[in-house]
Amino acid sequence: MTNTGSSLFATVIEDHLELKRRNARLDPDQPLDEFVVNDPFDNHPLFKTEDDARREEEQTGEHPAVALEIPQDTLELPVIEDEPAPADRQQGWMETTSSQDFTWE
User: Fold this and answer.
1) 30-76 tens-digit pLDDT
2) Which of 6, 41, 48, 81 has the lowest tally of Cβ within 10 angstroms?
3) 6: helix, coil or strand?
4) Residue partners of 11: CB distance under 8 A and separation at least 6
5) First to last CA, the chain
6) Per-residue three-class SS string for 23-91
């Protein structure tokens, strides 16, 4: 019972409803209720509001996986002073700013 003019989603819904209608007569003899599981997303952290998640943390004593406050010692980046390279040390090819030996001219 597919409709070529409708979207794929609508077609899948129509097919599902048709299958449900055809199988309705089987339910009294072969009920599926014992095979239906609880909603696995019920009480899942991704589907809670922030208020619900905070309330649950307070009740259970569990702490969030990610700290909500930035530790004071990480607010400023440390300053690292560059030490001058020894005069006899050769620079690597990535440390040079220009090549003195090669020109396109």
Assistant:
1) 888 888 777 777 767 777 888 887 888 888 877 765 666 777 887 78
2) 81
3) coil
4) 2, 3
5) 75
6) HHHHCCCCCCHHHCCCCCCCCCHHHCCHHHHHHHHHHHCCCCCCCCCCCHHHCCCCCCCCCCCCCCCCC
Q: Residue 97 in 3-state DSSP?
A: coil
Distance CA 33, CA 31 (A): 6
Q: Which residue has the tokens 């390279």?
A: 85
Residue 31, CB half-sphere, CA atoms under 13 Å: how many?
3
pTM of the complete model: 0.29
Assess contact for 15 and 24: CB atoms under 8 A.
no
Structure tokens at 3: 């409709």
